[in-house]
Write a structure and sequence with these properties.
Helix content: 25-40%
CATH class: Alpha Beta
Pfam families: DsrE
Organism: Alteromonas australica
Family: Belongs to the DsrE/TusD family.
Largest sheet: 5 strands, parallel
Shape: globular
Low-confidence stretches: none
Oligomer: single chain
InterPro entries: DsrEFH-like (IPR027396), Sulphur_relay_DsrE/F-like (IPR003787), Sulphur_relay_TusD/DsrE (IPR017463)
CATH architecture: 3-Layer(aba) Sandwich
Structural class: alpha/beta
Strand content: 15-25%
Number of strands: 5
Subcellular location: Cytoplasm
Mean pLDDT: 95
Length: about 130
């Protein structure tokens, strides 16, 4: 049994990255392995935008991450610097900067790179999508 960290760096609109990541996660959990966390970095932070809406029969990436978090109690960590650079704003950033809209909410949690690197010490495998 291995402990995994998943690193998401590509946009949810770039091919089938999200579907492949979630299928990989389903497989590792079915195998009895552990998912310690998912870390969203770079353009990967766009997965965390709660203003994305489901349209038609398209894959609803935001809902899929929400489901993963609630079903498996998975930490969804979002790089705070990458997020604010791309307009993904939590309640704290909105309040500090006088912004009325918030688009980063639970189950996604802000984290710094230092926290991500510390969490990696508990993992035996890092897989990037």
């Amino acid at each position: 049994m291995k402990a995994y960290s998943i690193l998401i760096t590509s946009s949810p609109y770039h091919g089938d990255c999200a579907q492949r990541a979630l299928a990989f996660i389903d497989g590792l959990l079915a195998n009895g392995d552990t998912l310690k966390h998912v870390f969203f970095y770079g353009d990967g932070v766009y997965h965390c935008n709660n203003m994305m809406l489901q349209s038609g029969n398209d894959f609803y990436v935001y809902g899929a991450w929400e489901s993963l978090a609630s079903t498996h109690n998975t930490q969804l960590l979002v790089c705070i610097t990458a997020a604010v650079k791309r307009g993904i704003v939590s309640q704290q950033e909105a309040a500090e900067n006088g912004i009325s809209a918030v688009n980063l909410t639970a189950p996604f949690v802000q984290a710094g790179l230092g926290e991500f690197f510390s969490e990696l010490h508990q993992c035996e495998r890092l897989v990037q999508f």
